[in-house]
TrEMBL record:
SUPFAM superfamilies linked to this entry: Metallo-dependent hydrolases
Localization: Membrane
CDD domains assigned to the protein according to its UniProt record, in alphabetical order: rDP_like (cd01301)
Known EC number: 3.4.13.19
EC category: hydrolase
Organism placement in taxonomy: Eukaryota, Metazoa, Ecdysozoa, Arthropoda, Hexapoda
Catalytic activity: an L-aminoacyl-L-amino acid + H2O = 2 an L-alpha-amino acid
Signal sequence residues: 1-20
InterPro entries: Metal_Hydrolase, Pept_M19
Quaternary data: Homodimer; disulfide-linked.
Protein's name in the database: Dipeptidase
Family: Belongs to the metallo-dependent hydrolases superfamily. Peptidase M19 family.
Gene: LOC107271733
Keywords: Dipeptidase, Disulfide bond, Glycoprotein, GPI-anchor, Hydrolase, Lipoprotein, Membrane, Metal-binding, Metalloprotease, Protease, Signal, Zinc
Amino acid sequence: MRMVVGIMVLGQLLTRLLLAAHAGDRLAAARRILRDVPLIDGHNDLPWNIRKFLKNQLRDFRFDDLRETHPWSRSAWSHTDLRRLREGMVAAQFWSAYVPCSSQHLDSVQLALEQIDLIRRLVNKHPQSMVLVSSADGIERAHKDGRLASLIGVEGGHAVGASLAVLRMLYELGARYLTLTHTCNTPWADCSTADEPGQVPHIGGLSNFGKNIVLEMNRLGMMVDLSHVSVPTMLDAMEASRAPVIFSHSSAHALCNSSRNVPDHALRLLAQTGGIVMVSFYPHFISCGEKSTLQDVAAHINHIRKIAGVDHVGIGAGYDGINLERLPVKLKESFNNCPTSCQLPTVRTPAGLEDVSKYPELFAELLARGWSEKDIRKLAGLNLIRVFKAVEEVRDRMTEEGMEPLEEEIPKEDIIGRDYCRYNIKRVDSTP
Ligand SMILES: [Zn+2]
């Protein structure tokens, strides 16, 4: 009897060892793939945390390793530093120049400029590890060079102040995508909150001026980002855009019915138009709850693959922004004002994807679920590079066609339609 038990225990031990060995093999394979192709992440909110924590002062910012540095080490908002980016084999990061909705019609353009300036200074301060990139080729060059390609994405269409001139200048400063809305309608586009029960759409998608914003972005070579917009805005933008569009940090609506996620019919149109959804790791949009796991994230990636195809999915984790976004504004503000001393609620990154060092584990999980190496390469970065290049080709074609910068006046009804989705309040300065 004792011998039988002994054999059973030994058998279990061997199975576990064998599984662990396989898992180790898959992780090694994932790391090998990421040495070969650049891992590109569509969204990281570190710049806003630098604004909150350091008032944009980089003097004492030790980006190499923040794990022991106050206040980052104790903050549930902090998941990013250079050491962990290297460990996670991240080759290219779109840094978010996020502009809060409370600044709309007030100082949103100034905030966008300050956040772009911050990203540029952050990159220039670390020339050995980072390089400012504004083209698809630049991502590939930086990857060969072993430096983190750092790109700028502006989050919130209100950052352009309903002005094509401001849009053009943001492009000149390096912005390579604009998220058409954040959590508020702009005068020309509805945000995702408009899709929620009981909400009345402001425009019902994109206004004519909104469509011109999209066209001007096409002409410039700036990617149209549809994370945070309402479903009618998604559909209008995909119809209006001559180039493929992106979702820089969104997941699948079929698995979690948050208005921040992309429904299947929009995924099908996205596939037809050649775009990409870069999957967010935010628990509220992954499990529709406070907690989620790496396996839940893998399920979203698999769903988007199933509906849109393997050419239309990427990664846009949203690290450093996985926090209190969905909490009531008042409560959120109270935490904004005390990032160092407050007991933060339990909104956490998914188990297994705690910070930017963990991406290879996700690719190892997908290998275990039967993904081929070829498909992993697409997901990691080749899909985004394809979309980015297509956007650049459309720009070149429109230039060849002799298209001039758009000068259309803003229709009057567009500028008077000042509708606030959520922040129907005066701007509250959220710096500590
Ligand atoms: Zn966002």
